[in-house]
Amino acid sequence: MAWPGTSRESFVTETWREFLEGQGLTIGPDGHSHTSSENIDTFQELTGDTLCDLSHTTQVSAGGDDAEDFLQNQLTNDLQSLGKEESLLAGYCNAKGRLICIFRIWRNGDGFLIQMPRDIHEASIDRLRKYVLRAKVQFSADREPIAFGICGKTAAKGLESIIGRLPKRENALTRGDDFYVMRLPGGGRPRFQIGGSISSCTTAWNKLTQHATVGGSWTWARLDILAGIPNITLNTMESFIPQMVNLDLLGVVNFKKGCYPGQEIVARMHYLGNLKQRMARFRVNDEDRPQPGDRVYTQNKTVPTGTVVDAQSATGSSWDLLAVARIADIDRHTLCLKNAHGPVLFQHDLPYSAVAAE
């Protein structure tokens, strides 16, 4: 369905787009932004501080007297434990325990803001709406879904000098009068998301460009890969059970909360220990960008062992990627992309423990 809009929503979106174009960014139809001439040092080696537009994501407001109970009964994580200065990731599954989407969610007044990839947000929210029934829950496009990110070794210092108090822990957030700042995992690189009114975001962005380089949204997506955080796309919707993409390792599945769609399957896999596939991080050399949904093979075998979750540009013609594959194959066999004789995947460590929380 098409989201209802107002002239105010259209004005904010178009104004932000025009602002970004003035910063040298071009935004594609999927919301991903890029620069006309990429700086190899900044965008590939990830040195220095980088500003990234986040128009490839969007935010949806969830409100109403029953919003918390409803979402608690739909998502894999425990919303009742979510504090006012915290955000969390949560999976939304179908009845078979397969992920439809991975949300980032935080409290906003009496309701919630839900952030997700722009290309699947309508399908995901429409799916949720089917189960509202008589519950008092309303979903609506956020009126000012403006957000951008900054990453880099000195990002915190630069941000604190213009905004003030920053969150100390990953996934925590602090709020100002008309903005918020969220600290996110960055694969060893400090990373923050800033959002709020268009005036506060443009003011902060302009000040931060004094010591940070403007980059595209693909840099932000690559940081998710380096942090081992999966994103579900149109090509991979309903492909993975949460544990297959490490959501249990990331604390995104709470095994002590009540039921949600697919909970029985997810819990059975956890308690019986019969997980056969896991997500790992790789680098591959190839002229073409690997796509979510591309198949992964063990070398010289014609039956695929797994699937690409996401891939982003690294250095030269190489790509950083996350892929799900059979656990027995990841450490014991050479893995290849697209076919049994395709480009070889070289495994890299993930920045979190391989032991799931209970």
The total domain count is 2
Query: Mind telling me the CATH class of the largest domain?
Result: Alpha Beta
The CATH topology of the largest domain is given as Gyrase A, domain 2
Judging from the principal axes of the Cα atoms, what is the shape? globular
H/E element order: HEEHEEHEEEHEEHEEEHEHHEEEEHEE
- Main β-sheet, spatial strand arrangement: 10-11-12-9-3-13
Provide the structure class.
alpha+beta
How many helices? The count is 9
Quickly give the CATH architecture of the largest domain.
Answer: 2-Layer Sandwich
Q: How does this structure look, described?
A:
This protein is an alpha+beta fold. The protein has helices at 7-22, 40-43, 67-72, 121-129, 155-163, 198-208, 217-226, 263-272, 327-330; strands spanning 25-27, 33-35, 50-53, 57-63, 87-93, 99-108, 111-117, 138-141, 146-151, 173-175, 179-184, 191-196, 213-215, 277-285, 295-298, 304-313, 318-326, 335-337, 344-348. It folds into two domains: 7-226, Probable tRNA modification gtpase trme, domain 1 (Gyrase A, domain 2, 2-Layer Sandwich), CATH 3.30.1360; 243-348, Elongation Factor Tu (Ef-tu), domain 3, CATH 2.40.30.160. The strands form four sheets. Strands 10-11-12-9-3-13 form a six-stranded mixed sheet, sandwiched between helices. The chain has a six-stranded antiparallel beta barrel with strand order 14-17-16-15-18-19. Strands 5-6-7-4-8 form a five-stranded antiparallel sheet, with helices on one face. The longest helix is centred in the first third of the chain and has 16 residues, at 7-22. The model is unreliable at 1-10 and 39-43 (pLDDT under 50).
